[in-house]
Model the fold of this input.
Amino acid sequence: MAPKNQHVKEVMDRLLDRVMVEDPVDDIKLRLRKFVAERDWQQFNTPKNLSMALIAEAGELVEHFQWLTDEQSKNLDNEQLKAVSHELADIFVYLIRLADELNIDLIKATNEKMLINRKKYPAEKVKGSANKYTYYD
Amino acid sequence: MAPKNQHVKEVMDRLLDRVMVEDPVDDIKLRLRKFVAERDWQQFNTPKNLSMALIAEAGELVEHFQWLTDEQSKNLDNEQLKAVSHELADIFVYLIRLADELNIDLIKATNEKMLINRKKYPAEKVKGSANKYTYYD
Amino acid sequence: MAPKNQHVKEVMDRLLDRVMVEDPVDDIKLRLRKFVAERDWQQFNTPKNLSMALIAEAGELVEHFQWLTDEQSKNLDNEQLKAVSHELADIFVYLIRLADELNIDLIKATNEKMLINRKKYPAEKVKGSANKYTYYD
Amino acid sequence: MAPKNQHVKEVMDRLLDRVMVEDPVDDIKLRLRKFVAERDWQQFNTPKNLSMALIAEAGELVEHFQWLTDEQSKNLDNEQLKAVSHELADIFVYLIRLADELNIDLIKATNEKMLINRKKYPAEKVKGSANKYTYYD
Done:
């Protein structure tokens, strides 16, 4: 291989390394594993328990919105927004932990589900309708 | 700039483009925006409504585990695993949509929250204890 | 009517009054209406909002149990038991409020649903099995 | 005792019997115990599992309201109303079962909590405000 191509290849390898490291979901997953192991919390992180922790956090999220109008829910002040962002983070943490414990690839599962939704709710058929039986779940 | 470095720069640019495109959460976020727009569902996607949709999906997740023992919850068969993976996907979809509507960077918020958790629950102090007041929420 | 029967009738009327007053769900319903009216909170008590408040309280309930084993969940200490009893009360409050706003008779609806469950899950057929598709929902 | 009073006493006793039988929550509690025992489901009815079943039902309730406006949530059609009444019944069933398993008197706990709420939210102070930190939980 010519030196020039050798150089390019090395740069590409270094970049690909960064790409892997930078997959943000994978990165959080690995750091959560370490976080749990350091605290010896693995024993509590059964899928059953994690599903409960996830919905308890979702309950805290809902609590922020329960007395707001739709308009108010779109216009949170900075303090509310910070608090809500931390609730979303808590849910994400348990979602990633749960997927990890079950060896589920969260991104792959989501892409798969989005394909199903695309077929289930053809744009021309459900346009503008939010009937609960024709929504994306 | 010498031709050789020019070539390297071009390769790096192309790679960096791919890195951006391949951020999986961002990618899903953009496709969900399109999915919602094509169906004219933007009107229903208020933060308040999305928080409800998220917890309703979390309820479906919990339903899978409610009568299982911890051991059973770790050993789902393939059919259960597929169904659970789709529930996780549904939750992820609404989590990403909600963050998007509120202009919250989900990854950044999660990293921020994980730093808070790290300080709140020092490993040496909480090791092996799952007291609900000293867990990661 | 003879004096004797007159006396009996009066006692019966007084007792029937007590029966009405003592229907505990109805009694709580009426006191909650008053509680809400005194605070001018009627405006926030839409069925939609009340369903959110109810599930947020259910999330607080779940939080108490999420890291406990089944055995631990059966043996709460007095402090936990008091806290859990107040979560159950919060859920009951919103359940009664929601039924009231929708003019649903909670007791009648429950009796109706229990009849459906009885037919759906014949004892001899589901005995000892907790398959989620053959349980009482 | 004179015959007349004897008669009154007998009527009162019969009425008091009916009063006891007619406490609707107690009545449902006893019938649920029987329902569970006949199906040998006692083993699954741990407080932990019942808290999960309760919130899963609450999720089904929320699903009915998630895409509705406040106004629409007040004006359900008969079919929706019937479905929602059955979700409320499902939640009530698990609430009563959970209280029963923990030996909590649901009515007593609710009355106790309502007294706390009354002190926590003085009418003159919170009138017309739904700030989530000054609401009734």
About this structure: The CA atoms of residues 7 and 108 of chain C lie 34 Å apart. Helices of chain C lie at 3-22, 24-38, 47-65, 70-74, 78-101, 106-120, 123-126. The first helix of chain C runs from residue 3 to 22.
